[in-house]
Each structure stands twice: as C-alpha cells, then as structure tokens.
C-alpha cells in the first residue's frame, strides 16, 4: 500500500512529464502554467488510493488520475474567470496573466485533454468510466449554475445549498473514488460505497471551507477572513443564519446585504455577531461532523481488509482537522 504523499509525488512526476508539442503556444502555455501550480491534488490522489485498495501495480492508474486533475483545473480556470478572481495558489489567474478569451479557450482545451487521458483506461473499463465521467462533468455544470442562480436569491434553503455543493464539489470526489475502484476490479457494492464515501466527504469538505472563511485562523488560512460575507455569498452559515434569525436579526442581515457603501471590517463583525448569537458556528460544526461520520461509515462498508483502509481513514481525519 502507498501513502497519500507517495501517490501525490508519483502523480506529480507523471504530470511534470507532459509534453504539449502542438501549436499555437498561446493555447497551451496557460495549460502548462495551471498544471505547474501543484497543490494537494486531492481528487486524483483519492482515485489512486481507491485503486490501491485492490491493486499494487499503479501503472495503468496514472493517466485517468491525470485526467481528473486536468479536468478539475479546467473548472478552476473557468471559475476564476466567472468570479473575477485575481489570484490562485499564490499566482495570477489565467485571465489576469493572459486575458478572458484565452482563459475560456485554454479551459475548453483542458476539457478535451482530460478526455484524451481518460481514454487511456483499459478497454474493458472504458465504457463504464466514460459514462460516469460524462455524468460527473454535466453535474458539475449544473452545480455551478445553481451557485450562480443563488446569487440572485435571498431565500435559498439549506437543502438546496447541500444539493448544490453535492453537484458542484462532491460528485468529483465521488467519481474519482469510484473510477479508482472500477479500475481496481472492485465489486459493484464496493464501487457504490466508494462513491457514497466521496459524496459525504466532498460535502463535508465544502462545509469546512465555508466554516474556515469565517472561523479560521487568518495566519493559517492564508487570506483575510470574511470574504464570503463581503461578497454576500450564500454559504451554509449564511443560509442557516437566515433560517434561524428573529425579525430584528433578519432586518440587520438584509441591511448589510443591500449596503453598497460600508467599512468591510464593520460588515464582517456585524454579520459574525449575528452568527454567534444564533450559534451558527456550532451548527456548522455539527453538520460537518455528520457528513464525516457518514463518510467513515461508507468506507467501513467497503469489503477490503481494514488495514488497507488506514490511509483513507487518516486522510478523512486530516480533512476533519484541517485549518486551510
């Protein structure tokens, strides 16, 4: 069995050996730029870990793992453009380093490249994996659209939000794990449990992101806290606060939602005060723990020796404790 850091190192080596010899360079340079940013590469590492539950020879797993990483970065490239983000992982976003049109086109090319690498799966698994990948890509687009739709609404229910993050974030965790299981020759029951594990892990991961934006340590988190509050982003904390608020608190919330001329720190402090009055921090922590517990239950149901699941369990524990 390999550890997550070992698999990440091997994947990084595989990706670093990519050679884009096609032209024009203005299409492919942004792709090299994005893929050189590194990061945790959690989704393809999860795929490799799931595969490693069943097989030790990792050779056939790196191409589909790379496909997942290329696709994930394609979505980030487009997300950064839609969000007008200036920086990602300490570097300028593609639309800032180049321009909007190049960001769109290079992102589109990355989607095609992701399919090129996914096609390298062994033929006996290719049809099932491509079907799963297609459904995942479409679902992520649906999740992104829901997220954008929510920007225009102040009545988003917590159930709607959880469904949105299931689509936008969790299904790529789930598909990555299931693809690893399929390639490893796992039973249908195991691949279904791996998929459910990914859904619950991915939802918990996004809820923790929401939580850290308000209650994280800014020195560890690496950016100023309260960014979601300043942008009126419909996070789980925001939605639960509106659900639980009394008439006065709702009025205060709406005042800050509509405000166009304000001191940023004053707005953050006022909204966090409401969160604290309503015990939103504790409610969010409870929901995060609920999904991590579900994830561990799904992993427990996977029918491989418990010693083989130690690395995945350790990863869950790490994600539960993470501060960035």
Give the topology, please.
Layout lengths: L3 H13 L8 H11 L6 H11 L9 H22 L3 E2 L2 E2 L1 H4 L2 H19 L4 H28 L7 H27 L3 H28 L2 H4 L5 H4 L5 H9 L2 H12 L5 H14 L2 H22 L8 H12 L3
Antiparallel strand pairs: 1-2
The 3D shape can be described as globular
Write down how many β-strands occur, each being a DSSP E stretch of 2 or more residues.
Answer: 2
Q: Could you please say which CATH topology of the largest domain applies here?
A: Farnesyl Diphosphate Synthase
Helix content: over 70%
Question: What's the short version?
Answer:
It holds the Pfam family polyprenyl_synt. With about 325 residues, the protein is mainly α. The protein has helices at about 5-15, 25-35, 40-50, 60-85, 95, 100-120, 125-150, 160-185, 190-215, 220, 225-230, 235-245, 245-260, 265-275, 280-300, 310-320, and strands at about 85-90, 90.
Structure description:
- This protein has 2 domains: 120 residues, Farnesyl Diphosphate Synthase; 199 residues, Farnesyl Diphosphate Synthase, CATH 1.10.600.10.
- Strands 1-2 form a two-stranded antiparallel sheet.
- The model has no long low-confidence stretch (mean pLDDT 95).
- The protein has 324 residues and is mainly α.
- It is built from 16 helices and 2 strands.
- This is Farnesyl diphosphate synthase.
- Pfam families: polyprenyl_synt (PF00348).
- Its EC number is 2.5.1.10.
- Keywords: Magnesium, Metal-binding, Transferase.
Please give a handful of descriptors for the protein shown.
about 325 residues, mainly alpha, Farnesyl Diphosphate Synthase, 2 domains, two-stranded antiparallel ribbon, 16 helices, 2 strands, about 0% strand
């Amino acid at each position: 069995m390999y550890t997550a850091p070992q698999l990440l190192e091997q994947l990084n080596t595989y990706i670093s050996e990519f050679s884009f010899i096609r032209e024009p360079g203005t299409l492919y340079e942004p792709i090299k730029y994005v893929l050189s940013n590194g990061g945790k590469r959690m989704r393809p590492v999860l795929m490799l870990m799931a595969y490693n539950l069943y097989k030790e020879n990792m050779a056939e797993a790196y191409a589909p793992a790379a496909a997942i990483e290329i696709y994930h970065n394609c979505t980030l490239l487009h997300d950064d453009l839609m969000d007008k983000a200036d920086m990602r992982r300490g570097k300028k976003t593609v639309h800032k380093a180049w321009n909007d049109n190049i960001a769109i086109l290079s992102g589109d090319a990355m989607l095609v490249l992701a399919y090129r690498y996914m096609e390298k799966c062994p033929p006996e698994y290719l049809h099932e994996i491509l079907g799963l990948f297609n459904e995942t890509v479409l679902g992520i687009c649906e999740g992104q659209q829901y997220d954008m739709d929510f920007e225009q609404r102040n009545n988003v229910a917590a159930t709607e939000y959880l469904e949105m993050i299931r689509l936008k974030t969790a299904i790529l965790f789930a598909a990555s794990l299931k693809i690893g299981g399929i390639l490893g020759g796992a039973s249908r029951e195991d691949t279904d449990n791996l998929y459910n594990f990914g859904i619950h892990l991915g939802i918990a991961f996004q809820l923790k992101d929401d939580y850290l934006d308000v209650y994280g340590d800014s020195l560890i988190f690496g950016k100023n806290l309260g960014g979601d509050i300043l942008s009126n982003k419909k996070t789980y904390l925001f939605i639960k606060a509106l659900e639980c608020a009394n008439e006065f608190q709702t009025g205060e919330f709406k005042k800050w939602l509509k405000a166009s001329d304000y001191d940023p720190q004053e707005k953050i402090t006022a909204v966090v005060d409401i969160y604290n009055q309503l015990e939103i921090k504790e409610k969010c922590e409870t929901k995060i723990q609920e999904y991590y517990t579900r994830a561990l239950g799904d992993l427990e149901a996977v029918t491989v020796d418990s010693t083989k699941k130690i690395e995945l369990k350790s990863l869950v524990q790490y994600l539960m404790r993470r501060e960035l």
